[in-house]
Specification:
Elements: E1 7-12, E2 15-20, H1 21-77, H2 80-94, H3 97-110, H4 114-124, H5 131-144, H6 148-161, H7 166-178, H8 182-194, H9 200-220, H10 224-237, H11 242-254, H12 258-271, H13 275-284, H14 290-301, H15 308-320, H16 324-335, H17 341-355, H18 358-370, E3 376-379, E4 385-386, E5 402-405, H19 410-419
Antiparallel strand pairs: 1-2, 3-4, 3-5
Helix pairs in contact: 1-2, 1-3, 2-3, 3-4, 4-5, 5-6, 6-7, 7-8, 8-9, 9-10, 10-11, 11-12, 11-13, 12-13, 14-15, 15-16, 15-17, 16-17, 17-18
Length: 427
């Protein structure tokens, strides 16, 4: 640029400046650099207060989140005082109630102040982002206070907010069961199966139980058609569900459809023999005499010939028909290493009826008093033994937890007692 010839002349307010083009360009560049520096300095001075404010807010937020974390740790550790203190500190530092209300509520619960916790939970309901947390907290409180009606209403609200939550769906289902709302529980179950919260096989079993309960409910309303239709649906879903199969067979017998009742019982017996099934089978096929009834029950037993209940059923019918050899054969097959109390009593009846041997019958009765009591309806959750099946365990209220099996500990107790029994007892 300096090698290029050229000049520039400026006149301004009586001054005259003459210079070369290169000097002019250099002067302009110098002025531009100084102006840029001054501009950056001015921007820095303008931004300093905002930057300081952001740094201060970031520090408060960092300390607030630290207090929030420490408060959650205190809740997990059961330190109510530290949780409350950290909650107040987090609230003061963050100034964001949705973040701190849950910690404050949990700290109040930990300290035993349910009223204060309820106040925080209700405040959460007013904000969409914390509504579910508030509903869940109030639901938990209602469950602790055994307020089923309030808990059910809160569970419905929670389910509307989070229908895919397994915790919410399970509690709503249980509360509907407790309230006897079988149809609503069935709808909740269907949605849980569709959402993958409950497996398909488990869902079918549960639905069969619910349909059975709806059949009982329809029967109580004297709606025979609906009761039979629901019982049939329950049976088709799970033929191994003994109470459902027994109810369907009884309804069919009452409706004069003995043949269909027989088919239902036979289908259930293949999967799960049970004394109630044998009883309703006798009602569906009464027979002209004891021999006819024996032949009918023998046909039923042949559908599951190796099951103990099949042998006991035939032995009982043979005793009634006074066929002592047939009765003894099946009782010996059912006896095994440790006969159950029902088998021992039937053996006592056989010894007295066939041979008039009261002494040996007495020995069998003594053995029955210490023998395994045999299968019963046993809760799989709490171990309670009941005489009749119910949809909810009478002790722990578990749904469909009663199974037909030997009570826990009964077999070992019977074995120990029989080991101490007199050697003269029949083997």
């Amino acid at each position: 640029l300096a090698d290029q010839q050229g000049s520039a002349i400026f006149e301004w307010r009586g001054y005259r400046v003459e210079t070369t083009t290169a000097v002019l360009v250099a002067a302009v560049m110098a002025v531009a650099v100084v102006a840029a520096l001054l501009y950056r300095l001015w921007l820095f001075m303008c931004r300093v207060p905002a930057a300081l404010g952001r740094a201060r807010r970031a520090g408060r937020r960092r300390r607030g989140y630290l207090a929030l974390t420490r408060g959650m740790v205190a809740v997990a550790a059961g330190d109510a005082e530290d949780a409350r203190r950290q909650g107040k500190r987090a609230e003061g530092l963050l100034g964001d109630p949705p973040l701190t209300m849950l910690l404050s509520a949990q700290a109040a619960q930990l300290a035993g102040d349910e009223r204060a916790a309820e106040k925080f939970f209700k405040a959460m309901l007013e904000r969409p982002e914390t509504e579910f947390l508030g509903v869940r907290g109030l639901l938990t409180q209602s469950l602790k206070q055994d307020d089923s009606e309030q808990a059910l209403a809160l569970a419905r609200r929670a389910y509307r907010l989070k229908p895919k939550s397994e915790w919410v769906a399970a509690h709503l289902f249980d509360l509907q069961l407790s309230a006897g709302q079988w149809a609503d529980a069935e709808m909740t179950l269907a949605a849980s199966v569709r959402g993958g919260l409950v497996g398909a096989d488990e869902g079918e079993r549960r639905r069969a139980v619910l349909l059975h309960q709806r059949s009982l409910e329809a029967g109580a309303r004297a709606d025979g058609a609906a009761s039979l239709r629901l019982a049939r649906q329950a049976f088709e879903l799970d033929p191994a569900f003994v109470p459902g199969a027994v109810r369907l067979a009884r309804l069919l017998v009452a409706a004069g459809k003995e043949r269909k009742a027989v088919q239902a019982v036979e289908r259930a017996w293949r999967r799960q023999p049970h004394p109630d099934l044998a009883e309703v089978y006798r009602a569906a096929r009464p027979g002209a005499d004891a021999l006819d009834r024996l032949r009918a029950l023998q046909h039923l037993a042949d559908l599951n010939p190796d099951h103990v209940e099949s042998h006991v059923t035939v032995a009982r019918a043979a005793l009634e028909a006074r066929l002592w050899g047939e009765a003894r054969k099946h009782l010996e097959a059912a006896n095994g290493a440790a006969a159950s109390a029902p088998v021992c009593r039937l053996m006592a009846e056989l010894e007295e009826s066939e041979n008039g041997d009261t002494a040996r019958a007495h020995q069998w009765l003594m053995r029955a008093s210490v023998a395994d009591p045999g299968p019963a309806w046993v809760c799989g959750d709490c171990g309670m033994v009941v005489a009749e099946w119910t949809v909810l365990c009478p002790k722990c209220a578990s749904f469909d937890s009663l199974a037909w099996r030997r009570p826990p500990g009964a077999a070992s107790l019977a074995a120990e007692t029989q080991a101490d029994a007199p050697a003269a007892l029949p083997a």
